[in-house]
Specification:
- The structure is a single chain.
- The chain has 249 residues and is mainly alpha-helical.
- 52% of the residues lie in helices and 5% in strands.
- Helix 9 packs across helix 11 (184-197).
- The chain has a 3-stranded antiparallel beta sheet with strand order 1-3-2. It has a two-stranded parallel ribbon with strand order 4-5.
- The chain is built from 13 helices and 5 strands.
- The longest helix is centred in the N-terminal third of the chain and has 14 residues, at 17-30.
């Protein structure tokens, strides 16, 4: 990226890379540069864009991201198809089957700069692990984590609905392991969403095979444990996971 800068700018880049990258991104936004939306797509898809994603099946996703960008001049989907390859070498790396950004630091800065402007698309289309690692609600956390995206309070309901969808899709560890639930206040609020929206009779995590009782027990959240014990009617209290552990061991 810095090859396009003069010597003074290159030195500044190595001293303060986050600042330089941020300025570059905000400049793209101001100029309605197509690259701004291209970088946002990397954020939504957790830094991995399959080369086959530009199809009629994904047009609605791209349209949502474009519409949320609120740029003065928005590109067409066809223009975006051409924009990604044009960024190779400066922002983007070509990994044969997919595109990704050049390094984790660049991606982290893109998350910080762009994520807050695309929360609706992130809640709709990002992976459960991205939601877990990158989204937070302030001021619930004592210290603001770097490279995270703040969900504004008026979108907490949308955030919780996304989490309940992930619960129903058995991404239980990703949901309940969210740092948000270190707050007793938000655990209490989430229980009401669980009651209304989580319909799975058997909540077993897709990645670990542990049921929900194993997970909340390991996290030490007694309020969640009481809720799920009551919901489960105590049926799985002695059910072992793949490591032959029961929820209470």
């Amino acid at each position: 990226m810095c090859f396009s800068y003069n010597n003074e700018k290159v030195l500044e880049y190595f001293k303060h890379p986050d600042k330089i990258i941020s300025e570059e991104i905000f400049g793209m936004q101001k100029q309605s540069d197509n690259a701004y939306i291209a970088l946002a797509i990397f954020v939504v898809f957790n830094n991995k864009i399959d080369k086959n994603m530009f199809s009629s099946k994904t047009d609605i996703i791209l349209k949502d991201i474009i519409n949320e960008s609120i740029l003065n001049q928005c590109p067409t989907i066809q223009t975006l198809r051409l924009t990604l390859p044009s960024l190779i070498g400066e922002f983007v790396m070509d990994n044969e089957m997919y595109y990704c950004l050049l390094g984790t630091q660049l991606f982290d800065v893109c998350v910080t700069c762009l994520g807050g402007s695309f929360v609706e698309s992130i809640l709709k289309y990002s992976s459960s692990i991205f939601i877990k690692e990158r989204l937070q609600i302030l001021p619930t956390l004592e210290k603001k984590c770097s490279y995270t995206i703040t969900v504004q309070r008026h979108m907490v309901g949308d955030f919780f609905r996304r989490l309940t969808t992930d619960m129903n899709n058995n991404f239980i560890a990703d949901v309940l392991g969210n740092k948000l639930f270190e707050s007793e206040e938000y655990r209490g609020k989430f229980v009401s969403y669980l009651y209304k929206h989580v319909n799975s009779e058997t909540l077993t995590d897709a990645s670990t095979g542990s049921n929900v009782l194993h997970i909340v027990s390991s996290l030490g959240y007694l309020d969640f444990l009481k809720y799920f014990l009551k919901k489960d009617n105590y049926k799985n209290i002695n059910k072992a996971n793949s490591r032959m552990e029961t929820p209470c061991t």
